[in-house]
Amino acid sequence: MSSAAIREELCKYARKTVSNKLVVGPGGNISAKHEGKMYLSPSGFALDEIEPEQWVEVDIESGDITDIGLRPSSEVLMHLYAYRANPNIGAIVHTHPPYCIAFTLVETELPIMFPDQAALVGKTLYVPYVLPTTDKLADAYVETVNKASTVLLGNHGLVTTGRNLREAYYRTEVVEESAKIFLIATAIREPKALTKEEFEEIASLESEAYRIQLLQKMK
Ligand SMILES: [Zn+2]
Question: Which of the ends of the chain has fewer CB neighbours closer than 10 A, N or C?
Answer without folding.
Answer: C
